[in-house]
């Protein structure tokens, strides 16, 4: 399941062909190593809005070194620009003035974050200026290169202190394959965050349910949530029992083998979590299947099985957990959507409908949830797993290269994004759908 093309481009012949034929040259992305500093370098902070003053202190909490001074010989690992003060189109010049001189002063895999105000919460020319940030960051994401990422984070007024976990994620190698994204903080009302004593183990004492945990993306989600301190309860089908049990034994977690589409699955999961763990803090609906066929050849069973596993089961399980009061205060529910649910894909009307439905599920619950419970979704692009290994070679190659990083992502990239949602300090991160797609050229 390795990326052989990427390996080839790093050989002498590969380097020559990349240079002379202008082929995509995927670079080795930085990924987070447990125990390493969150950011290996200095972050330059600029702009003048609601957040500018508190930013250095906020980054300091995370152990991230920052400066507000641009020295000619300095190199930066990250750039954070507070654009919340921009209230008109003319003022957008401040973006160019800050970024243009520093774009050649970045180290490898740099991180760029532009902070704004949710456009829907302001009026007139301020709304125009704030909405413009999306186009700016998405374009910069496509031109930054060197494994760099660029995002806009819209922070509602009053939620300034709730941005710490998001900045920690987006400035670190944990967000290696997340770029061109728009994140909203505090847009659904919550602006308060609980204090985190240990940022390396924010899930200490928490219980996390992960469906489809025996392999692929689910396995990495279980590993990363365990790394962050959670007790993981893995769920998978009975056929995957031995892999699931081995993994959960390694992670000192717990397991439950069942088909999530089973009639009594929601009740069994709720009962298990309540009786054995006293509730659950993090719910990750990762289990998913594909049964591809063009619509003209789509039989009822292909249609029904995909909708049942990917959409109906997460809905019913979530409803049961909420109705039974099994989700603890401040809990986090995470759906796993897909780029197919945003851009569509040939042969995947069933799958894309199910994954777009997951996004609808997030939208519908985000305003409804109580007790500080949040719901968000990840939408992975091309992630190298057993699921994508089954894709025919030519389609797979196109799928892997058609993004700003010219490569597929790894399961850990999806897992890290979920761990950011699950962090108790992300309590104001609600109702977001974040693509983990290396800024794929397809879809919005
Ligand atoms: N791999 C990608 O590129 C990609 C892209 C977008 C979205 N996704 C989504 O990410 C999730 C994980 O994908 P993956 O690539 O790791 O897939 P995978 O096939 O490797 O793993 C899926 C897991 O879900 C389990 N599962 C399937 N049906 C189940 C059921 N009825 N009850 C309980 N468990 C069940 C499987 O046994 C397996 O362990 C899926 O929801 C998938 O749609 C993957």
From TrEMBL:
Domain of life: Bacteria
Residues covered by the Ketoreductase domain: 206-381
Name recorded for this polypeptide: 3-oxoacyl-[acyl-carrier protein] reductase
Family statement: Belongs to the short-chain dehydrogenases/reductases (SDR) family.
Pfam families on file: adh_short_C2
Record organism: Nocardioides psychrotolerans
GO molecular function: oxidoreductase activity, acting on the CH-OH group of donors, NAD or NADP as acceptor
């Amino acid at each position: 399941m390795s990326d052989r093309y990427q390996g080839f481009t790093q050989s002498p012949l590969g380097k020559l062909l990349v240079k002379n034929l202008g082929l995509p040259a995927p670079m080795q992305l930085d990924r987070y190593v447990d125990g390493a500093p969150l950011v290996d370098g200095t972050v330059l902070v600029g702009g003048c809005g609601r957040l500018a003053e508190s930013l250095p202190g906020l980054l300091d909490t995370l152990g991230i070194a920052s400066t507000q001074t641009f020295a000619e010989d300095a190199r930066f690992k990250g750039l954070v620009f507070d654009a919340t003060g921009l209230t008109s189109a003319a003022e957008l010049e401040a973006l160019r003035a800050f970024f243009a001189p520093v774009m050649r002063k970045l180290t490898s895999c740099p991180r760029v974050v532009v902070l704004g105000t949710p456009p829907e919460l302001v009026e007139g020319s301020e709304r125009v200026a704030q909405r413009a940030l999306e186009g700016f960051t998405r374009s910069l994401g496509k031109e930054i290169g060197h494994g760099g990422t660029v995002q806009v984070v819209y922070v509602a007024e009053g939620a300034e202190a709730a941005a710490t976990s998001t900045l920690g994620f987006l400035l670190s190698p944990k967000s290696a394959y997340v770029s061109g994204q728009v994140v909203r903080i505090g847009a659904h009302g919550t602006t308060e965050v609980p204090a985190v004593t240990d940022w390396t183990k924010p899930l200490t004492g928490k219980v996390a349910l992960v469906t489809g945990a025996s392999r692929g993306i689910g396995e990495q989600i279980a590993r990363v949530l365990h790394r962050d301190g959670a007790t993981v309860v893995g769920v998978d089908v009975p056929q995957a029992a031995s892999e699931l049990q081995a993994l959960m034994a390694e992670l000192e977690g717990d397991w439950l083998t069942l088909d999530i589409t089973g009639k009594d699955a929601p009740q069994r999961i709720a009962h298990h979590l309540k009786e054995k763990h006293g509730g659950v803090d993090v719910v990750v609906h990762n289990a998913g299947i594909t049964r591809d066929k063009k619509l003209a050849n789509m039989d009822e069973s292909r249609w029904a099985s995909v909708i049942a596993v990917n959409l109906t089961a997460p809905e019913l399980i979530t409803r049961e957990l909420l109705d039974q009061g099994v989700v603890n205060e401040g809990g986090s529910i995470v759906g796993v959507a897909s780029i197919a649910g945003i851009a569509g894909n040939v042969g995947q009307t069933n799958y894309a409908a199910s994954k777009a439905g997951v996004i609808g599920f997030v939208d519908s619950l985000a305003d409804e949830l109580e007790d500080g419970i949040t719901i968000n979704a990840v939408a992975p692009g091309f992630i190298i797993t057993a699921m994508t290994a089954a894709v025919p070679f030519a389609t797979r190659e196109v799928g892997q290269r058609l993004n700003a990083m010219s490569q597929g992502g790894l399961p850990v990239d999806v897992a890290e994004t979920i761990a950011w949602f699950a962090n108790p300090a992300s309590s104001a991160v609600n109702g977001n759908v974040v693509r983990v797609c290396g800024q794929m050229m397809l879809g919005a």
